[in-house]
Amino acid sequence: MISSDVYEHYMIREILEEPEALKRTIDLEYDRIRNVVNEIAAENYEMVYITGSGTSYHAGLASQYALSNLAGLVSSALPASEFDRWVPKRISRRTLLIAISQSGESSDVLEAADAALKRKIPILAVTNTPGSSLSEKAEFHIFPRSGRENAIPATKTYVTQLLSLFMFSIELAAKNVGDDELLDLRNRLYMAPQAVEHTLKSLIPKIKEASRRFKDLDAVFLLGSGANYATALEGALKLKEACNIFSEGFATREFLHGPLRLVDEHTLVIMIAAPDEVESLVELSRSLKGFGASTILVSESTRRTKLLTREVDEVFTVSSGMPLIFSPLLYILPLQVFTYYSSIFRGFNPDRPEKLKKVVK
Questions:
Q1: pLDDT at 278
Q2: Are 123 and 40 in contact (CB under 8 A)?
Q3: What is the pTM of this model?
Q4: Which of 97, 184, 247, 304 is least enclosed by beta carbons within 10 angstroms?
Q5: What contacts 216, CB < 8 A, 6 or more positions away?
Q6: Which secondary structure element, helix H or strand E, spans residue 248, and what is its range?
Q7: CA triplet 284, 62, 244: central angle to 5 degrees?
Q8: Which H or E run contains 272?
Q9: For the chain, what is the largest distance between any 2 Cα atoms, rounded to a whole number of angstroms?
Q10: What share of residues in the chain are helix, strand, coil (percent, to 5)?
Q11: Mean pLDDT value of segment 338-354
């Protein structure tokens, strides 16, 4: 495990604790998740809603992608504060709610849970806090094993939520297609602790220098597609929280439909792209550079990635080999570290952003 003892702030220490937190989640939750999957599969749910707030909502959005593509479930992620407004009062299909909350005490998530129970929708709680209010409302439980998180910006709680939800998705999918077809996918998912540790070790010095280089820019746009649309949203949230900077996440092609107008020499654009998406970004990257923007690519080191390396100011490469459907586990790491150092170089305390609280009630 990477030593975090030399670091002053909780945020970076907690980022460096992620490999161990992921390993602990696999070791302690594997059996529980398989049991939960057995119980849920027996109910033959036709529809799954997923809800959470902030970072937990982004974890839910990434899990919607996994559940839809792996398990073939009709699923919909909604911010907890909007759940009661968007979900029909009368539910005609067998429906499950996955409610995600680090603390299990977020008032918006608890209200969404109550709204689900009024509709006779059972709840799967994904929370780091056994015995919390959310866990008491739920019929099914998964407990990501992040350990205590002291910094207000969520980092290790996010990746353990992701891993827990991805484990749930692949085990549920195995009920439909059989273990043999998913064996390789499962094995590669369970290599996440090692892949995260390798990525963090290789990137920290480079990201620290890049954070210093871009510290005076006024706005950051983050672009991602598929599962990494959620990564773009989560990265933008981290930058808002810890760096007090205007930052927004977009689905990559949606950025062309209006927001591109805002790009200029004061702008940083971070493109999050799997290797098979890189080629399609070459023209966009050239346009961004033509408008004066600074650019960063977050991807893996492959021959395809080299096509774009010459077109951007900086490349943050994550470990290769993680299936695309689970790639948010790795692609968020450079953004977490970049946020931490950007906060430091901008003169902020990343652990305690002004106006924010760890649990919103």
A1: 87
A2: no
A3: 0.95
A4: 184
A5: none
A6: strand 246-251
A7: 65
A8: strand 267-272
A9: 56
A10: 55, 15, 30
A11: 96
